[in-house]
């Protein structure tokens, strides 16, 4: 504890004494002397591969093949860029003694694991960039801290694969993000958004989900938020359901972006088309077009007349067809039952009829055999042909 608090304190005093003309009091002279003596120890060192600028309060360790966060980052640092390295793991000990750190970028690394409370020693942190990483195992308390004050979180192209959305969603839910106003989740191949993933983000205004593979938006997905900018371009949405549209309609300041989705122009898109017709919220409404079916490809959703979908007429026809099949079935059933009933009532008559038919048959057969025998008699045949 003494080690970590000692040097920064004297660094601060050194800074003060170098900037301001020393006041002419004995105590201050003593302090100056003390800080001069401590100067070699207190000089805010710059970690070897990094570049530090004290006036700009900025430290950059860019493209240095670092495999871990460097130790002894100067306490004055407000902006820290450790980008384009090979860092794979962020632990809770990596960022200590940086009370002034506002911006932290860890973009373009190979971060796959983030431990519990990884950023909790950074009380001033506002901007956190984890884009272009390989997040796979993220502790649910990774972002959690007593006072999470992060305002912007960049998770673009940061998931290892689409399964990583589950731990990331859990870490967002449990992160205690009271001030998060901007969240970027672009280019992540996300197929679905876990239920309630955004529900705790009361300050969220700007949500970017561009270039994922979202197939459906549930009405609970953005429920209770008050978004101003929601980007869903380049996803896999075939339509949006009326409940989800109603939820978005409730967010009065929202600008929604929907282009480059594979809209399927069948009856399921009717609700969306009529919603688009009366909503002012979709910023790129002119760019929305059908992808299927083929004869409607590239037709603007705004130009789709109700007749082209032909939902109501075909629905009607289908219904009448179904009704007539049912009717036919009932009629056939009744006829069958009546027939069986008639058979039952006439069972005696039928028996007699069967017997008499059998007798008639027998007689007929006998007669036939007789005639056959005569026919096959050569003499008789001869006689008859001679007659003709
Ligand atoms: C977030 O990261 C992506 C990818 O690195 C980058 O293009 C984008 O500009 C970043 N957003 C902000 C606000 O810096
Ligand atoms: C949390 O942060 C806010 C602003 O960043 C500050 O006003 C508040 O005092 C902090 N609360 C605690 C418990 O640190
Ligand atoms: C994502 O990667 C993990 C770890 O390699 C694997 O277990 C999981 O099946 C992968 N998920 C997908 C959708 O590929
Ligand atoms: C979309 O994201 C994928 C990675 O998930 C990337 O390869 C592709 O270039 C991105 N496309 C656009 C247009 O940004
Ligand atoms: C979502 O829609 C269903 C009906 O489709 C409704 O029962 C449910 O209450 C809705 N949920 C929210 C959060 O609006
Ligand atoms: C769009 O709204 C107008 C009136 O505002 C209406 O005349 C028109 O039929 C609607 N079109 C569709 C496809 O709903
Ligand atoms: C629709 O537009 C795309 C890209 O502009 C084009 O490749 C395709 O041939 C068009 N299809 C039709 C049916 O016009």
Q: What structural class is derived from the secondary structure elements?
A: alpha/beta
By oligomeric state, this entry counts as single chain
What percent of residues adopt helix (DSSP H or I)? 25-40%
Helices and strands, in order, run as: HHEEEEEEEEEHEEEHEEHEHHHH
Query: What compounds are bound to the protein?
Result: 2-acetamido-2-deoxy-beta-D-glucopyranose
Cα separation of the termini: 140 Å
- Which strand order do you get reading across the main beta sheet? 1-2-3-5-7-9-10-11-12-13
Question: What's the domain count?
Answer: 3
Question: What's the CATH architecture of the largest domain?
Answer: Alpha-Beta Horseshoe
What's the CATH topology label of the largest domain?
Leucine-rich repeat, LRR (right-handed beta-alpha superhelix)
Strand content: 5-15%
Just give the CATH class of the largest domain: Alpha Beta
Output the number of helix runs: 9
Report the radius of gyration as a whole number of Å. 42 Å
Silhouette: elongated
CATH homology group of the largest domain: Ribonuclease Inhibitor
Largest sheet: 10 strands, mixed
- DSSP E strands, number: 15
Stretches where pLDDT is under 50 for at least 5 consecutive residues are: 1-24, 34-42, 383-388
Protein name: Trophoblast glycoprotein
GO biological process, one term: negative regulation of canonical Wnt signaling pathway
Domain LRRCT: 261-312
Keywords: Leucine-rich repeat, Membrane, Repeat, Signal, Transmembrane, Transmembrane helix
